Amino acid sequence: MADKVYLCIDMKSFFASVEAIDRGLDPFTDNLVVADPSRGSGSVCLAITPAMKALGVRNRCRVFEIPKDIKYVTAMPRMKKYMEVSAQIYGIYLRYISAEDIHVYSIDECFLDATPYLKMYKKTPKELAILLMDAIKAETGICATAGIGTNLFLAKVALDVTAKKVPDHIGYLDIDSFKKELWHHRPITDIWNIGGGIAKRLEKYGVYDLYGVTQLAPEILYKEFGTNAEYLIDHANGVEPCTIADIHNYQAKSHSLSNSQILFEDYKYDDALIVMQEMVDNLVLELVEKNLVSDELFLGIGYSKDVHRPTGGSRKLPAHTSSFKTIVREFIQLYKDTTVKGVPIRRLSIGLGHLLDADTAHLQLDLFADLDAEKKEKDLQHALLGIKEKFGKNAVLRGINYFEKSTGRARNKMVGGHNG
Ligand SMILES: [Mg+2]
């Protein structure tokens, strides 16, 4: 785990930059506001260019709050356009970094595990950041900023706090420099995941910065914040055990794939079995498309006019797989073991649970090869503790799905001829 290097890359005033560049304007010298003017002067500015920030205009202010003597262009928000540019930027990362080492955090922010690529490209972390930032600038015109850190938390704080103070827009933090530069930083709400609510509760104990958090007894913090105290204490010490692989696994684990259908007429035992196999076929296809593997099956059968209570059950596979042969064989066996013969069937549902990212599933097995299954599960759970609180806030998974689709769409466009 030692010597990890993460990058966190963010687009400067993303929406406003996209709109400015689209109009041939320079976000650093031209004034532009992204807001819906049809909503009147009370509408919120979704974004403003850095040029306007330099004039003292607050991000997310209301239109009427902009001083009257400042001339600016107003742009209607176009989420679809921003999503497309975001997907374009994701495509740029993919040229250098594999998807398993990228975590899309928001529409204009990504975490990258740079560790394996520094040797590969013979670059320092900063040089790799510059390579990516230059590519983004050259292809989209947008100025990116970057944080470099020895864990995900430090990379994020390096981006949010340190990068703002340096002319090259690249911040760097390891545990030592973090303690030196951020332990006494105020306000504490500049620190990722520490909002006004947490800050207020810390004030009760006379704590106004991260150093203060390190000086409080853990019992007090656990009493005040419950299990969230764990990451507060970790972060105050510059520690973050979560990796991008953990996040991806958590995302995969946190949902299952399922499919169900109501049959239009009564189906006999053998006919319903054929329908079930078709459904399994589709579900496994979806599994493979999403690069996931499963080791848990669910089956549910409903009967005509409820003459029999629903049947079904679940089955555990010996290993994670996306093999149709294995999965359909187990489903057929589960069907035969649980479905009542001679009663007409009207409803079928199947599911695959305990999903893992196919790329990381085998890694994990290697990692825990000498441990027994229970310990394996426990360690994994522990590694995953708190991921949702820390990384799941922005409905990231939906974002990733969108990215995959839209990069696919962009590629189709490049190939051409696939309209509609
Ligand atoms: Mg941004």
Give the bound compounds: magnesium ion
- Assembly state: single chain
Helix proportion of residues, in percent?
Answer: 40-55%
Amino- and carboxy-terminal Cα gap: 47 Å
Percent strand: 15-25%
Write down the overall geometry.
Answer: globular
CATH architecture of the largest domain: 2-Layer Sandwich
**Uncertain spans, ≥5 residues at pLDDT below 50?**
363-371, 373-385, 392-420
Supply Rg: 26 Å
Spatially, the strands of the biggest sheet line up as 5-6-1-7-8
SS-based class? alpha+beta
Mean pLDDT: 83
What does this structure look like?
This protein is of the alpha+beta class and 420 residues long. It folds into three domains: 1-13 and 78-242 and 392-407, Alpha-Beta Plaits; 14-77, MutS, DNA mismatch repair protein, domain I; 256-354, Dna Ligase, domain 1 (2-Layer Sandwich), CATH 3.30.1490.100. It contains 18 helices and 13 strands. The strands form three sheets. It has a five-stranded mixed beta sheet, with helices on both faces. The longest helix has 21 residues, at 269-289. The radius of gyration is 26 Å and the shape is globular. Residues 363-371, 373-385 and 392-420 have low confidence and may be disordered. The site of magnesium ion has 5 residues, from strand 1.
